[in-house]
Amino acid sequence: MALPSVPHPRPPAEPRTRRDSALRDDPVRRWYERDLGWPVRTGPGPGTALRLVTGVRFDVLQLPAEAGFAALRHLGPKAPVALHGGTMRLLVAAGSADELPGLLDWLEWGDIPLDLTAIGTGGLIDAPTPPGMPGSRGAAAWLRPPEPGHEVEAALPSLTTLAAPAPRAAARALDGSGTDPHSGSATGSDLVRLVDTAATQCHRIRLRRTSNQPLAFS
């Protein structure tokens, strides 16, 4: 006689996950994850600042704020920009961080020390305080915040294609964009103009700081 099978006991209901708890209790995280769809990360300890994961939805160009303000004219009005102390962070298309060294070489900035870096895949930046929310003193803040409900990728400077390496003078078209605006690839030139202007301003700041240093006498 076959013994009746006994069903396995049902597992207890899973407790509320850490992520669900964070979304409910942290309005900043909720704004980034739910409203924007951006991946974030927190540290292990309580009170750790929220970090944005780069290389997924965007990369970041990082440079002195003074240099960054001069480069803003090459950004569309919906391209997000953040400030953290004296540093400006410009959001650019994902993958741009890998392109930066070659692009600087192409623009003939490769051998010149610049305070211009890029953060891409696997990187983290402090999450700026969302608009309308209180932030701590000295925390990162949005100069141009992203718009919830809008895909950020379409607003970011990107690099589509580049021709064979050429001197900086040859890289600029008549309109100064670096590509022929009628060639169909002008949208990809935004990153070229942005990087060239940012590098120029970073170099000027470096030269000014060097010239202001007192002479050392033995």
Automatic annotation (TrEMBL):
<dbReference type="InterPro" id="IPR047919">
    <property type="entry name" value="SCO3374-like"/>
</dbReference>
<feature type="compositionally biased region" description="Basic and acidic residues">
    <location>
        <begin position="11"/>
        <end position="24"/>
    </location>
</feature>
<feature type="region of interest" description="Disordered">
    <location>
        <begin position="167"/>
        <end position="188"/>
    </location>
</feature>
<feature type="region of interest" description="Disordered">
    <location>
        <begin position="1"/>
        <end position="24"/>
    </location>
</feature>
<feature type="compositionally biased region" description="Pro residues">
    <location>
        <begin position="1"/>
        <end position="10"/>
    </location>
</feature>
<protein>
    <recommendedName>
        <fullName>Proline-rich protein</fullName>
    </recommendedName>
</protein>
